[in-house]
Every structure is written in C-alpha cells, then in structure tokens.
Amino acid sequence: MTDATPSTLYVIDASSIMHRLYHAVPIETTRARDSDQPLNVVIGWVRSLRRLREFGARYIVPVFDGDGPGWRHEAFPAYKSERRPTDEDLRKQFTLVRELTDALRLPVACLPGVEADDLIASYAEAATARGRDVTIYSSDKDLMQLVRDGEPAVRQFLPGKAGGIVEAADVRDKFGVGPERLGDLLALAGDKVDSIPGVHGIGPKNAAALLADGDLERLLERWSFVHPAKLGDTIHRLEPEIRLWRRIVELDRGVALPVPLDDMQPWTPSRRGLDAFFQRFGFPRWEAAVDRFEE
Hints:
Layout: E1 9-13, H1 14-24, H2 40-54, E2 59-63, H3 71-75, H4 88-103, H5 116-129, E3 134-137, E4 154-157, E5 165-166, H6 168-175, H7 179-189, H8 204-210, H9 216-221, H10 229-237, H11 239-249, H12 271-279, H13 286-290
Parallel strand pairs: 1-2, 1-3, 3-4
Antiparallel strand pairs: 4-5
Helix pairs in contact: 1-2, 7-8, 7-11
C-alpha cells in the first residue's frame, strides 16, 4: 500500500485498533519491568503508527469514543447490550494510549457522548469535500459504508497480517451490496456486534437479494411484492423497527470536528517524548520495549 496522495488523511479507529491489539500482541511478554502493568496495547499502538509511516502516512488523526452514552443508546436501549465487559488489562491501557498519542505529537479527536464512528464519518466527509483522499484504519465493518471510489476516494485499511485495503468492489464482493446500501443490509439482516436484531429469517445473502433492485426505502414501499408473501408481511409489520435499526446503523457525517482539518500538520514523531513515556515503565528507550519480541 502507498499513500494515494501526499495530502491523504489517515483516520485511526482507536477503539477497534486497541481491542485488536489486545488480543494480537502477547500480554505476558509485554508488561512493564518490575510491575504488573500490561503494555501490549501500548506497544502494538507504536508499531501500528510506525507501519502507517512506512506506508507514507503524513496526516494522521486517532479518533476515540467519547465518554458517556450517546443518542443511539437513548433511541435503542438494547444497543451494544450483548457485548462482553472490557477486560481489565485492556481498560488499564486506554489512558496510556491517549498519553502516548500526546507524547507522539499526534492530535486526539474525541467528543463527549459521540461515538468514534460518527467522528470518523465526519472527518471523511470534510476531507473529501476538500478534495483529499481518506484512509480509515479499522477492522469495523460499519465503517465500510464510507468507502467510495473516484477522486477523492475513501478506503479502509484492515490491520493485521491478513489485512489490506478495502475498496468499493471489495465491499460488494463481501456483502453483495455496495457501500451505499450496506446500512440497509445491516438493518435487515441485523448486526450481532451492535445488538441489532434484524428481521427473523433474513441473513446477509437474502438481504442483498432483496436490495438488488433498489434501496431499503423502495423495499419497504413494495413489501407486497416480496416472495414468499409471509416474508413480505413480516417486513411490513416490522417497518417501524426496521426504520429504527436503519437509523442506528447510519453514520453521522456532520459532527463538528474537534481537531479542524486546517490545524493538522504533517506528523513528526517526538523521539524524546516516546523515550520519556517508556522510561516511566523501566525501559531506557522506546525500542527496548517495542522491539524486544518478534511481531
């Protein structure tokens, strides 16, 4: 992967990346010296940023979930209710990752009560409106709604050894619909990750088939033409719920940006800040922590 243009904006989905790193980087070999403080997410965070720089990223903004419940929880109390509680060893590192990001001279984008997904969508919308390409660093499928071809383009970069760049054709290959209808599909088929139940009897494949000739609005208007008729009746009966689920999975692209695009400068990491951060945990320099075991 190479930077599409020198001005490409790289937006990091911090929550998604931190959870992936927690399970991908061995925790038992990455604790602070003479301490039980886990550092596997912190070390993985440095490695991820280093990888982005190797790919040519110059403008990078990590985006974090804001504290407190947002509008989705108020509109749909079951939202994300089935998620397991965050492991304590992961929770211990949330603040450290924020502090490390500051030490590296990277801007931190976060707003109280606002999910990272909505901020990411808003950064993508604002950047493309200015003619800038956007690359979203995340494994979250919801963000694939933002992918778009052309100039400017929005791509998603999946982390990990099996990761890679996701473009519009990849979304269609995976889900059977393009990015513009992925939200429609999730409303119909449901999304276990976010506790969206979807319509009983509709999975991703038949949801894609139902959307082949139009969007969700057209399907709701033409429910009587759905076969089998029993499924059409179910869609009609559940129309209010389907519309709510569609609203829940929709990404808000109009959130005010906490770090304006005009304030972002090409990233120049601070080695001094990085060394000072890891010295807090008994390492003489940052490489002694980050490079002491193979990836």
